[in-house]
Design brief:
This protein has 310 residues and is an alpha+beta fold. The chain has 13 helices and six strands. A hairpin with a 7-residue loop joins strand 4 and strand 5.
Length: 310
Amino acid sequence: MEIRDTETLFAPTAPSSGVVEATVVSPTEIDEDCYQNMDERQETQHHYDRDELEVPKLRADGNQDPKTQDNLDELEVPQLPLDNQISPRPYNIRITTALKALADKNISMVEYGAEVQLRCGYEEVPVVVEWGVPDEQLSRASQILVENHFPRLFTRTRSWFGYWETRCLRHDLDGAGWMCVHLLPLSLVGFTLEDATELRKLRIGDASRLRVEKDLLSFISSYILRGPPGHINPELLHRLFEQQSNEELLKKLDEGVRFIKKWDWGNVEETDLALAERVVRDCQYVGKLTDVTWDPARPCTTPEPVSPIE
C-alpha cells in the first residue's frame, strides 16, 4: 500500500488491547548496513553532530533565533497568516517534513498514540510521534529519516517504557532530543495495514472541529430546545427529532428560535442571526458551517442562502 501524497496516513480502526505476542524484528536485522548498536560512550557523539546536520537553531515558535544571525538586516520576518489561513505550528512543520520524506519513498505508515488523539479533537502536543511501519520497511524508513537530517537517537537497554521503547527506532525531530518520532514495527503493535483505515488529505489538527460540533449541538439541544443533553452527533440528534411528531417538532423549534431572538446579540450582521436560526432548526447544518475546506479560487461564503430573522 503506497502513500500517494504527503498527508495520506493510516489510523488504526481500534487500539490494541492487552499484551500482544508478536515476532519483533531483532536489533541486528534493523541495524543491518546502516545502524550498528552503539554503547553509551558513543551517545554524545551520536546524539547530534550539529556541524554535520547544519540545522539552524529554532525558537519555540519555529522561527530562527535572531542571536544566531550575523546580519540582522537579512533576518526574515515571518508573515502573519490571513483570517482564512491557519498558522502552522512548529511541531506540525517538523512532522510534515518527516512525513514527506517517507511518503516520497513510498513508505507506508500507521498513526499511533498522540496523533490519533489529536485527530479526534483532543488537545495534544505530539512530543513523541509514533508511526507504525511494516517490518520489511522499518530499516529503510529509519535510513530515510537520517538522510533528511532527523538523526537516530540512542536507546538504552533500560528505558522509561521498557521493551516498547527498546523495540522501536527513535529519531530526533526538533534538534534538541525532546521531540522525537518512534518507528514501531507493526508486529510490535499487533496489527497490519489491512486493519487500519486509510486517510486522505486530512491535516493534523483539523479534527478539533469535531469537538466544536459536539459542544454546539449539545448546547442547542439541552439549553435552547430543552431536549436531550450530552455529547451527541448530528445524526443521533436528527433521529431523536424524527421520533417526534411534526407538530411537536415545529412547536419546539419555534420556541427555540423565539428564545434566541430575546438574546442581546449586540452589533452583528443579519446573516449571522439567520445562521443562528438555521442551526437551531436544522442540526445537520452545523456540519456544513464547520467544513474547513477552502479553495483560493472560491472564497468561503455562506454554504446556502439564508433569509434574515424577521
